[in-house]
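Whiteboard transcription, Tuesday session. T.W. wrote the structure tokens on the left side:
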């Protein structure tokens, strides 16, 4: 069985939780206290960060890599499109997710100009979602899961109003209809 070294508040862990839930994979979650990280986490990941997955003594950190590993290990239901261009688009967006999450963290740190920078990041996402139903193209998948955790947290924990971003808002409503995403929303509500 897969073990996930996990932290409820961590959006990177949320990516992995959602993929596991979508694929119906049973796993054991070991909660890591981010405010007092145990020394052994460095044996699992030299950077000392979660998420890490472990299977038969083999460990893998980095949420974007874990998502792809899980996609290959448990191909059904597919979370990467069959179409090569859509697969590449999903990977590109995941590769560039920092363009969205950096302004989010700047806002969390209340840096100067962070409000405007996060608004710009949301407007860019909105524009992407005006042109296609899901971030990765025609189908729901890894790209949506890669961005979603920050939006759930921004809405619930930072009181973000998504009304000005109608495409993002509609996308989020469609996502929340999925049990795997609703489960994560429940985790966020409990933080
Ligand atoms: N690039 C990593 C980032 C993971 C990450 O930053 N996790 C945070 C919790 S949300 C963490 O473990 N922070 C502890 C630290 O940075 O020392 C990934 O995608 O998995």
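and on the right, the sequence the group agreed on:
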């Amino acid at each position: 069985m897969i073990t996930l070294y996990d932290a409820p508040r961590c959006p990177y862990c949320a990516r992995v939780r959602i993929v596991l839930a979508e694929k119906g994979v049973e796993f054991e979650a070991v909660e890591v206290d981010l405010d007092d990280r145990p020394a052994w986490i460095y044996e699992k990941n030299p950077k000392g960060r979660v998420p890490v997955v472990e299977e038969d003594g083999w460990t893998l950190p980095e949420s974007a890599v874990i998502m792809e590993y899980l996609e290959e290990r448990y191909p059904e239901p597919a979370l990467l499109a069959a179409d090569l261009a859509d697969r590449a688009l999903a990977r590109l967006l995941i590769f560039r997710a920092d363009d969205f999450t950096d302004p989010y963290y700047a806002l969390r740190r209340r840096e100067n100009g962070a409000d405007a920078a996060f608004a710009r990041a949301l407007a860019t996402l909105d524009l992407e979602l005006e042109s296609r139903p899901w971030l990765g193209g025609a189908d729901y998948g890894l790209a949506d899961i890669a961005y979603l955790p920050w939006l759930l947290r921004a809405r619930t924990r930072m009181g973000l109003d998504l009304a000005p971003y109608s495409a993002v808002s509609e996308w989020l409503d469609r996502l929340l209809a999925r049990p795997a995403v609703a489960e994560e929303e429940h985790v966020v509500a409990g933080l």
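Someone added at the bottom: The CA atoms of residues 32 and 81 lie 33 Å apart.
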